[in-house]
Amino acid sequence: MGKALFYKRQYSAKISVSTLICAALFIASSAFAKEGDIQIQLADTCPPSFSLGTDNRCSLRHMYQLYDSLQDSGIGGLKTALPKARDGFSPQQIDLGRLLFFDPILSADNSVSCATCHNPKQGFSDAMGRSVGINGQIQTRSAPTLWNSAFLSSFFWDARAESLEEQAVGPLFSPAEMGNTPKQLLMSLKNTDTYVGLFKQAFPEQKAPISIGNIATALTAFQSSLISLNSRYDQYAHGYHDALNDDEIAGLNVFRSFVARCSQCHTPPLFTNQQIAVIGTPEPEGLPRDIGAEKTFKSKVLRGGFKVPTLRNIAQTAPYMHSGRFETLREAAEFYTGGRGHAVPEGEVLLLHWHISEPDLTNDELDRLVDFMKTLSDESLVPSTPAQLPSGLSFKHMENNHNEKS
Amino acid sequence: MKNLNTLAVALAAATFAVGWYVGSSDETLTITSSKGGKSYSGGYVTEQSTSAKSEGAVKLRTTEGEIHVINPGDSIQTAVELAQPGDTIQVMPGIYSETVYIDKDDIHLLGVIKEGERATLDGLGKLNDAILYSGNNIIIENFKIIDYKGNGIMSQAGNNFEIRNNVIVDTGIYGIFPQLGKNGLIEHNVVSGIADAAIYVGMSDNIHVAYNEVFDSVAGIEIENSRHAIVEHNNTHHNTGGILAFITPGLPVKDTYDVIIRNNFILNNNTPNFGAPGSTVAGIPAGTGILIMAADDVVVEGNIISNHKTAGILITDHGNAANLTLDPESDPNADGAMILDNVMLNNGYDTIDEVKAFALTELHTGNIDIFQIGPTEGSCIINRHRYKTVGIGDFTDCDFTNTDDIENYLIAGGAEPRVIAPSERGEIAYLGVCTGCHAYAGRLIGPSVQEIQALYANRPEALVSYINAPTPMRSDYPEMPAQNYLDAETQLAVANYILQVGN
């Protein structure tokens, strides 16, 4: 199955343009232009992996619903339930979220969209150690993947948000990221006739549906539809042991062994236990220590602590760690065998996680770990990029392939 | 436990007065008989339904599968690969150097002991773990396991397990380590020379640890972030700490409660701490009989606890323990400690400075059987006058004297897997797997569901055959990957589901 195929999705919005000439005109126009010419009908069916209920809500279905987990924790081993997912949005809300996600109208100067840093072609990240916001501002951290964010209970590297909605408005109004203001954002959407119609479709019972709350809801609806649970690893987990080759199984056994201890924090089936861990990775040359969760929880013991990221689709999101210090999965894995605290600078006091130990992994074991991590890839449900954006603006993520690492 | 110092100083003024008060009330003794009194009712209500009385944690098989006999020179793992749920693997005496992993349900892995000679898994100091499993209803017994770097026997998320009669020597971090599982029995194992815990029950429910001998390790038996556990009739000696019940903050399962530690021999656990730097057990003071840290509702009954230089029973909250991370979701206090009758001899004879300093705030000098520090609620004790105690002024007299009513917390017949109706199973597999490539109407990647319905109407078995081993049918479509990783039940359920699904 070629990857290109995944971009031809059925459930995407059907866009019809009244005339080609009008379309061309409005692509060249600004975000504030009136463009009544694009008629977009939002999807009325759920994305794959979702079931449409009679109440017009999409409920997630996936194979891990066949299992339980201890204390409903959503962590465990191979046949273990996932954490409860965010779902229950309407097909229209999910589809509106998709359009918003790709539309640079969300940023102050129409220069970036959500997809700029969370590019579906790059694992919903951007192949950069630190992402770039408006006016070329380089961020302090990398863009986390959005795959499977429906299952997460905290957001951002430092776990400062507790819901996808809270997360969504962060970058929108951060001066360093999308730089917008609620006022300008609402105005630019209200001045775009297409969006006025789209919000009516997505929130039919509301009189004034263009609101920050509904923007956050739509973005949440879309993000929670990004499901990746059909990797070769998953086939193995469900009981088909030929899905992985000998090297990959050897990697799985290193991964879960108590020597490497990877699975103690990157716990299946989500490959994160969603806790904060202080592991002491180095910052990029010349950058100060990022204090991470110390700020969120106002606690020194969490200095340099970050949320354990999922490893699903990890092969797609190099470089690694919160500020992209490691270019490859091999380097990232190797960090853990460098010795407890080996990269912590003199004078820096970090309470390192107890699983940061001295595993003395062999080169062969590190290679096998990489083999195994690559089996966690599944982008079969990547949503399609809209044919055209409601604002008429051009896409701002396709050209964002800078610094792509092999 | 370096932080003890700071807190001791901070609390000194307050406890000084309390100490005087408690001191003066020592004159009236309440003597309670532990025979015939009221029993602890426990924190776990068994869902009593099954008449199938089970001796252990794994349901007795009604039919036996195949028996795979493994001899020295054979690979145990090869047999595991061949085995089907219900099968037994018998490993004959001899040396086997491999990592055995069982990602299947209902496998019994049994060593054969002949005239004392065991099937021995030898990690040669190079291999990581001896036995890993993730399946349910696993039995592992009669092995000798030596010289691994990680764990002797480890599970992630297996329910209903029995780990029995194994001899485990120097296998790295843990000897026996079930994690994230429910309903397990660990009995009659001899475990020694382990750098962390000889027997470590992590994030698990309904666990029974009995008749084990654990020694020469940092921690003997450890119950961490787990509920409904009984630790009884074990002999734990010459470790750094004997038996531990605690909460490690920063783990995804946040609490420990309802633990009964009873009728154990807990002797001479004064071995210098050789835990890895940063590990939670590295903070255990050598000479600790029982350590209760932040765990709730822990009953200590009928143990013989003797010859521990720090304390016989040490109870602390997180605030007084060193090197712990912050976890707002974990309750840091050890509430509901319940100390029933125990035999305590010669404990706390050479305790650590932090304990001494806090004892002094209660004007206590000399030996210490029971030491408690940090806020605690609902804790109780009977016959407190028998022991040398520090910090238990808030403990009431327990209104029960024994745990006789509780035999174990195991789930008779085993924890059942989730019951999924075939239609629900079909829907889950259809939406979770098939809809990635097949839309109801129109081509997505593969043909539409409508086309499939027309092709296979009333022939679900034929559809099952196809998805198991697809053959290209349309030249302009990509080849369908085989769905043979779905089990037969799921395959039929999804075939039936697809053939009737609407848009």
Automatic annotation (TrEMBL), chain A:
Origin: domain of life: Bacteria
Residues of the signal peptide: 1-33
Protein keywords: Heme, Iron, Metal-binding, Oxidoreductase, Peroxidase, Signal
Residue span, Cytochrome c domain: 92-223, 246-377
Bias type Basic and acidic residues, positions: 396-406
SUPFAM superfamilies: Cytochrome c
Record GO cellular component, one term: cell envelope
Chain spans, region Disordered: 381-406
Transmembrane segments: none
Subcellular location: Cell envelope
InterPro entries with a match to the protein in the record: Cyt_c-like_dom, Cyt_c-like_dom_sf, Cytochrome_c_Peroxidase/MauG, Di-haem_cyt_c_peroxidsae
UniProt GO MF annotations: cytochrome-c peroxidase activity; electron transfer activity; heme binding; metal ion binding
Pfam family, one: CCP_MauG
PANTHER family: BLL6722 PROTEIN, CYTOCHROME C PEROXIDASE-RELATED
Protein's UniProt name: Cytochrome-c peroxidase
Automatic annotation (TrEMBL), chain B:
Pfam families: Beta_helix (PF13229)
Keyword check for Methyltransferase: no
Cytochrome c domain location: 421-502
MF terms (GO), sorted A to Z: electron transfer activity; heme binding; metal ion binding; peroxidase activity
Protein name: Cytochrome-c peroxidase
Keyword Ligase belongs to the record: no
Keywords recorded for this protein, A-Z: Heme, Iron, Metal-binding, Oxidoreductase, Peroxidase, Repeat
NCBIfam families referenced in this protein's UniProt entry, alphabetically: beta_helix_1
Domain of life: Bacteria
